[in-house]
Specification:
- It is built from 12 helices and 15 strands.
- By secondary structure, it is α+β, with helices and mostly antiparallel strands.
- It has 2 domains: 186 residues, Chloramphenicol acetyltransferase-like domain (Chloramphenicol Acetyltransferase), CATH 3.30.559.10; 259 residues, Chloramphenicol Acetyltransferase.
- The strands form 3 sheets. A 6-stranded mixed β-sheet has the order 5-6-7-2-13-12, sandwiched between helices. The protein has a 6-stranded mixed β-sheet with strand order 8-15-14-11-9-10, with helices on both faces. A 3-stranded antiparallel β-sheet has the order 1-4-3, with no helix packed on it.
- α6 runs antiparallel to α10.
- The termini are far apart.
- The mean pLDDT is 86.
């Protein structure tokens, strides 16, 4: 494998990983092994399948090599001691093996950071799913954890394709190329850091030019009312110091019903509908706690900024836009219309700002400066004036066709996300074909101290969907 240095944005997720804030992403996939040969999938079959495919993605066998004294961004290098069985674990749900037990187990595993001296991923094969509603008896689950510095949601979908097949018959990749283990020398890393340091003034100058152009675009856009800026962002229970403990939950919706809701309002998108459902769920939850702010909550929405030529690249290329969720609006249909308007405004604002500005900024900013700022934010929580977003909502596209692993049919899944300083609630919208049917899963990861009742919040999301469907489809 070619030795590769982390990009600035990839390294940012390493610096953001602080005590109680692990920065990995992942998900839980559930499989019906009745479709496999003999109706059973053995753990050793999963190991053999993964062993035959580790050469298909650099994520499997590469680990971090740090530059002495932290003078440069780390490198990806092949792990000469790679041990597949360290990364793939076999466990079982405690009885009764229901949905609640699966969510509790997933939250506990997800709350633990990955070891930095190993390739930054783990898989847990989970048996004992005997009482999960809507899931065939004798099903099993696979929980995947991958550090955010190695991939984002877009590249994660490509990674998942590697461990799945399109039919119950397991395919066998060709003979892998020779595995060459190479490590950059200390001299090479320090030389590269020295060269990068000399490049910084030019990069800062380019950034200043970009910032100047962005400022002028923002002025013109605001004058022509192409967008409006979001000024007063409220402080909620999801802002503050994040604990080490997590909760996860979610709800699954029929993709066709979401599409029908979208079609009732001209111009709206699937994403607008899902944002509106989250907004309604947040409104219900905070109302129940007597904590609903008068002003709207704001969500950060990551956007993939890869060019067509960069689609096959790994790592992260993510921009952000802030969308007002209009949680102050009670009527779900009116909220959908206004959320659509807010999303259009947010996209226009992000375009004027320059969607790749965040990517370029992380390439220029010294990692130790970013780390210091994040540590301060994590240790103290941020002031009300510093609230940038109340939550994060990201859209991750899954496979548009039915998938199988070792012959077992994928019947359900939900995603797991990282928490950030001052943002203790993270939503993931995951669209895919599961159980031969188009679905959208809305899952969330939260700080347990901030959201101690995940089942109730999941029910709020379900009720928000029900009200929006009733209001638009009757």
């Amino acid at each position: 494998m070619k030795i590769e240095q982390l990009s600035g944005q990839d390294a940012m997720f390493l610096h953001a990983e602080l005590d109680g804030l692990p920065q990995h992403i992942g998900g839980v996939s559930i499989y019906n092994q009745a479709t496999a040969p003999n109706g059973v999938v053995r753990f050793k079959e999963i190991l053999a399948m993964l062993d035959s495919r580790v050469h298909l993605s650099p994520i499997f066998r590469r680990k971090l090599a740090t530059v002495p004294l932290g003078l440069g961004r780390p490198y990806w290098v092949e792990d000469p001691d790679f041990d597949l069985e360290y990364h793939v674990r076999h466990i079982a749900l405690p009885k009764p093996g229901d949905w609640r037990q699966l969510c509790i187990l997933a939250a506990r595993i997800h709350s633990q950071p990955l070891r930095r001296d190993k390739p930054l991923w783990e898989i847990y094969v989970i048996e004992g799913l005997n009482n999960v509603e809507g899931v065939p008896a004798n099903s099993f689950a696979m929980l995947l954890k991958v550090h955010h510095c190695a991939m984002d949601g877009a590249t994660g979908a490509q990674f998942m394709n590697i461990v799945h097949d399109l039919t119950p018959e397991t395919s066998h990749p060709g003979t892998p190329p020779p595995w060459i283990v190479e490590r950059p020398s200390t001299a090479r890393m320090l030389t590269r850091a020295y060269i990068d340091a000399w490049k910084k003034p030019g990069q800062v100058y380019d950034m200043a030019r970009q910032a100047g152009s962005a400022f002028m675009r923002l002025r013109r856009g605001k004058a022509s009312q192409d967008f409006h800026s979001l000024e007063d962002k409220p402080t909620t229970r999801f802002q503050g110091k994040i604990s080490r403990h997590r909760v996860v939950e979610g709800r699954k919706f029929d993709f066709e019903v979401i599409r029908e809701i979208k079609n009732t309002q001209p111009g709206t998108t699937i994403n607008d509908v899902m944002l509106t459902i989250v907004a309604g769920g947040l409104r219900k939850y905070l109302q129940n706690k007597d904590e609903l702010p008068d002003q709207t909550l704001v969500s950060g929405c990551p956007i993939d900024v890869r060019s067509p030529e960069e689609r096959s690249s790994g790592g992260n290329m993510v921009g952000f836009m802030n969308v007002a969720l209009r949680t102050e609006i009670e009527d779900p249909v009116e909220r959908l219309r206004t959320v659509h308007e807010e999303a259009v405004s947010a996209k226009a604002y992000a375009e004027a700002m320059g969607p790749r500005l965040l990517v370029d900024l992380t390439d220029v900013m010294p990692g130790n400066v970013l780390s210091l700022a994040l540590r301060a934010a994590s240790a103290t929580g941020l002031s009300e004036a510093s609230v940038v977003q109340n939550t994060v909502i990201t859209n991750v596209p899954g496979a548009p066709m039915q998938l199988y692993m070792c012959g077992a049919e994928l019947v359900d899944s939900f995603s797991l996300g990282p928490l950030l300083p001052n943002i203790g609630l993270f939503h993931i919208i995951y669209s895919a074909v599961q159980n031969k049917k188009g679905t959208i899963t809305l899952s969330f990861t939260a700080c347990r101290d901030m959201l101690p009742d995940p089942e109730f919040y999941a029910q709020c999301l379900q009720e928000s969907f029900d009200e929006l469907r009733e209001g638009t489809l009757g």
